[in-house]
Amino acid sequence: MPLIKPFPGLRPAPGRAADVAAPPYDVMNAAEARQMVQGRPWSFLHISRPEVDLPAGFDPYAPEVYAKAAENLERMRREGILVQDSSACFYVYRLTMGSHTQTGIVAAASVEAYDTNRIRKHEFTRPNKEDDRVRQIEALSAQTGPVFLVYRSQSEVDSLLARTADSAPEVDITAADGVRHQLWVLDDREAIGRLMQCFDEMPALYVADGHHRSAAAARVAAADGVVEGSPGERARDYFLSVIFPHDQVQILDYNRVVRDLNDLGREQLLESIGERFTVEPSGVPVKPKVQGEYGMYLPGQWYRLTVAPARIPLDDPVQRLDVSILANELLYPILGIADQRTDNRIDFVGGIRGLDGLQARVDSGEMAVAFAIRPTDVEALMAVADAGEVMPPKSTWFEPKLADGLVSHLL
Q1: Which of 181, 246, 268, 286 could bond 264 through an S-S bridge, CB–CB 3.0 to 4.6 Å?
Q2: Range of the domain at 338
Q3: Which pTM value belongs to this model?
Q4: Are 297 and 203 in a shared domain?
Q5: 30-83 pLDDT tens trace
Q6: Each residue of 138-167: pLDDT tens digit?
């Protein structure tokens, strides 16, 4: 099987992209989703978060929710809001957030490559979230949430995508958060063949975001089975993906806040931390720049923490991550947080909210202490995936986010 292939995408009809495009289904809660669809009858949230069309408090995992998603998808197709392309295409997708731009390819990626770890993961998945995505795919007979993949930058691929993006885009919209989404259809057979060949020569792709969506797609493909005598590949042997070169993606910090000081007083906490870190008060918020450096905020005061270099295990791709060092040297031994996945004393704050948002959680009295962490870089992510290891929870926050609804993959 080829690593990636073109497909006839289901897309908004001309002039409808702004009406349809929506944030990813998992970046808002139910109340926020209900607010977002006010006055937007064609928002893709009616498909990705169909509980917005059911009574408030309705179980989001009830069969009626998935049935409503299928009903809404059919309605949008029947009304001509969503239209399927007549031939298999690749799509070039460009995201622009402020001065940051990244240009990738929308493609169907091989489930077989995912199953054999040629498409590599770096996170554990939760069964209930996988089950949710499986039910959504099966109800719709479509994959509607793209998996965000990364390839090691390859000059020919990068150049071909950039050349395609030199022409006028078919879609050019700016979302409510200020992110610009542009889409080009790439239907030139020669270019498609060359892109497939270039990707087939790559040793691996990497899941950046969308572990549950890719795992669910693999489960759907496996559950459907292979009918004896069936001709070749099926649509469900591939999953919807947007693939960017590694040197264009942007990872923001993913910070931590803790509800209490584990029965320590403020001075006791600082003394304990001082046994493992250099502790320096700071008159301004601390945004870490180098490995082993952290910002810490206690009510009314920022500190710069710097771990001793000897405490950084440079030969281990997981343990040398800044999120791992903080966990191993401070969160567990000092604050008693053994498992960040399950301990309700800790919460996570995406870097998109800034250090002010981090500080506010402490100043409100909700949290006792906050930690600012240097962003994980994409090379570190790929090193963990190449080693077959798993990153700590909430290690990466990718921005900008992909939009749902611009291209869907029918099965």
Answers
A1: 268
A2: 254-374
A3: 0.92
A4: no
A5: 899 999 999 999 999 999 999 999 999 899 999 999 999 999 999 999 999 999
A6: 999 999 999 999 999 999 999 999 999 999
- Same domain assignment for residues 238 and 289: no
Cβ contact 118:39 at 8 Å? no
pLDDT tens per residue across span 311-345: 999 999 999 999 999 999 999 999 999 999 889 99
Residue 72 domain flag = yes
Assess if residue 406 is contained within a domain.
Answer: yes
Residue 76 corresponds to which tokens in the numbers above?
Answer: 């949008």
The whole-angstrom separation of Cα 368 and Cα 331 is 13
Same domain, 71 and 182: yes
The verdict on 51 and 157 lying in the same domain is yes
Total tally of structural domains belonging to the chain = 2
b/e code 340-363 from CB counts within 10 Å (16+ = b): beebebbbebbbbebbeebbbbbe
Q: Are residues 339 and 235 in the same domain?
A: no
323: domain CATH number?
3.30.1760
Segment 84-97 mean pLDDT: 98
- 81 and 20 housed in the same domain: yes
